[in-house]
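Feature request, filed as a ticket because there's no other form

It would be nice if the structure record came with a short human-readable summary line next to the tokens. Right now we just get the raw output. Example of a typical job, pasted below so the devs can see what we mean:
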Amino acid sequence: MSKESRDYLEMSFRSIQCFTDDGRLMPEELQRIADIALRDGVVDANEKRVLASIIGKLTKEELTPSMQTKLTELAKYI
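Raw output as currently delivered:
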């Protein structure tokens, strides 16, 4: 029986750190959060839920061209 991944908890914690650091999420910060989900080679339902939640909290100001590019890259995992 395989153990359920708890990476989604680390992802949530990291996102809170990013948002509270300066109130914004940068593309490289989003990538580091996504890397947590990707490190075991499988993006499970909890990790997808967390990524979708983080992306849903982005403000219009954060949706820069570089962030749009990052979102396009990550779309295949969500």
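Something like this underneath would help us a lot:
The CA atoms of residues 15 and 30 lie 8 Å apart.
The mean pLDDT is 92.
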